[in-house]
Amino acid sequence: MPVVIIEMWEGRTEKEKERLIKGVTRAFEEIGVKAEWLNIIIHDVPKSNWGTSGEQASKTAEITPSYMIRKPDGSIAREKE
């Protein structure tokens, strides 16, 4: 019974998590693992609990998740699907 643990920054929507779970499931089905055998666990980690390059991710302003875009005024917004 495979277990896939996904650790990522918090902030994804329920729809995005659903798409992620379906995509991971498809990938395992392609190698012969039945969906009912698979367990997927998503850990939403606050940026303050994530360190990168010796800093808390919450203090590193230049890090922008791939589903977000930086607008011309410098603000960050969720990318439209």
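(ticket continues) Second input and output from the same batch:
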Amino acid sequence: MSTLPRCVPVAACGIAGYTLLGVLAYFRRRTLTAVASMFGLAFAIYLTNVEVHILNVWCIYCLWSLLFMVLITLLAFGQLIFRRADRQLAETPGS
């Protein structure tokens, strides 16, 4: 099944997306990891919407992928938020 132009399989997009997230996380590009995870989450939500409203089927692998994208996004943004809070605490005088 392909929902992308020029018959790019959806699975190939998923593999590329998870690979990109892994590479960004490995090189500790936290902001880029958070942004990329948001795009991945938006795409996973879109595909779930297609499953429910157009195909009328549920794909267990797609649901697991959606769950993983939600967790990755929460962890990526959580790390950004807590890291900034730690920096602000370290920069306050008298601490």
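Agent notes: The chain has one domain: 9-86. Helices lie at 10-26, 30-55, 60-91. Closing as not reproducible unless the customer responds.
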